[in-house]
Amino acid sequence: MSMTTTGTLEESARRLFPNQNLDQVFAGLLLERAQRNLIKYQVTARQFETEYGQSFAAFRQHILTSEPDFRVEQDYFDWELSVTGVADMQAEIKRLRSLSNKP
Q1: pLDDT, tens digit, for every residue of 67-100?
Q2: Contact, 27 vs 92, CB < 8 A?
Q3: What are phi and psi of 67, to 5 degrees?
């Protein structure tokens, strides 16, 4: 980033977050993004649970012991991505929240 861009961003951060330093602003923005991602992954996982009427663990067991069609197999991969995403975002949120305890 150029000095002009950096200066503009710092000025905007001070104006929008007057009681926070730049590290706190950045951590807060990352936390907000992680929380939005968590919600997105949770919604997707719930949609699959509703559609298939079972947990991911039960669905996974069924997939591993059968020969699913393409659509069901694709749902498995998408559902697994959402379950993994939930765990990843929960860990990321925990890490980012720990930063808020530091000056």
Answers
A1: 999 999 999 999 999 999 999 999 999 999 988 6
A2: no
A3: -120, 85
